[in-house]
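Table S2 (text version). Query chain:
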Amino acid sequence: MDHAKAREWALVLDAEGIPYHLTPDAAGGWQLVVSPDDAARTVEALGAYETENFDPSAIATHAADDPRPGRRWPAWAVALGAVGGLAVLHAWSGPRAAGSAWFARGALDADAFGDGEVWRAVTALTLHADATHLAANALGGALLLAAVCLTLGPGAGLAAVVAAGTLGNAANAVLHGTAYSGVGASTAVFGALGVLAGAQFDRLRQGGRRRWPWLPVLAGVLLLALLGFGPETDVLAHVLGFGAGLGVGTAARRA
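Corresponding structure-token output:
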């Protein structure tokens, strides 16, 4: 089948939550590859969608081509690699109280950001005040980053989370205007939550389930309220990261 029809069917499988990937076929067209366990559901879903001219031969099943295992290890490799990188950097920079130059040059200082040091929106994501701060972000961050990478792919997932965290930090600096300095990956962690919610929102909406697309967003807001609010937390950074993630996730899902 042609690429347009393949993408149309792919949206149907997205709406049903059936993992798949597209591969070229011998005739120069495209075919959907699904797990043998999902073959019956796939035929049923596409048969219901295509009331006529449905050709099941365009669906291939092969255990070795099951999209789920093949996408898991790169996603976890990216997530654990990112956390490992943050741990190495923290061991190098030391705690913020030690007065390391890393914090002087990399923290999200609102005054410096306003003076043109815009890189701080990125570098602040990599710095943590102490080991407890790092551990708190590493646990949730690894889980959410892996989930995003499973949804969007490892490269696109990592880029989406970094973009959401960066945009959230930039907005935070602009809104504070002055006398603000912050560090930590939590903006990106809640950005990852927003990316997941935004991607699922777009998946459901594109799949035709118009009654339910807001459910992932509502679930994300509930998790934000549960985990992102509390004493000694940068609530605004968490909210802005989540909001940026919603936009990034919706856009990335369409790319």
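Notes on Table S2: The chain is about 65% helix and 5% strand. Residues 61-69 have pLDDT under 50 and may be disordered.
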